[in-house]
Amino acid sequence: MRRRNDIIHSVTADLRRFPKALLHMGLGAAAMIVLAACEKPAFMTPKATVYDGAWVGSFQMTSGTRDCKLKRGGVRLRVEGGELDGRTRVARRNAPFNGFIDEAGQLHKGFVKAPEFRKNDIEVVGQFGDRDAEGTWKSRDCKGSWELRKVR
After folding, report:
1. pTM of the full structure
2. Residue 85's pLDDT band (cuts 50, 70, 90)
């Protein structure tokens, strides 16, 4: 009988500690879930490309109407996983410059959002190399060319 009482007592003691252990495990698991949510999962992380890094350069107008406010200016951007995110200086203001670069270096969906232009967007096309990039742009009133050099 004593053996049976010892077993029952041991099991009862374990059951009393179980909720505390569960609570500690639950807090640890909750902390891991929160930390994991802060990081991008590997399948969502953009694939690194040879074009990743910081780029600087300029753009200039090649032809346009009198209404064209974009004569020339600077470009500063960063490429990460083929996604382009930067700024241009348009009509004395900074304007966002976005797009995507494929594995062959072709710029897709390149645009500058410039509210001071009637149609708002400037379409940008071009080709990126390992260290240099160049292309053309056009808006409703003018068009031109651009060039960039990778700095980092």
Report:
1. 0.64
2. very high
